[in-house]
Amino acid sequence: MHKQFERDAVRVEIQKWGNSAAVRLSALLLKEAGMQVGQRLELRVEVGRLVLELASESLDDLLAVMTPENQHGPGLNGPAMGAEVW
Questions:
Q1: Can you give the residue ranges of the SpoVT-AbrB domain (predicted)?
Q2: Domain range annotation of the chain
Q3: What is the pLDDT along the chain (86 residues), one digit of tens a residue?
């Protein structure tokens, strides 16, 4: 998790980027938002504004990075570890 706090608005300019338009985001702004280069974002329009948020990861995305090293230890499939009765 990252800290969430608000800062004063930052003014940026929409610039041409090939046949599209782009806005540059400073490293500090990304850090404060808990975002980094390469992350997927969701962009939506809300009455007169653009809203960027970290994209929700799909189950396929989560399973793709799953390895034996980052899996949880025994849970309900392990042996009884207290007063449980299976």
A1: 15-60
A2: 15-67
A3: 445 556 678 889 999 999 999 999 999 999 998 999 999 899 999 999 999 999 888 888 888 888 888 887 666 666 677 776 66
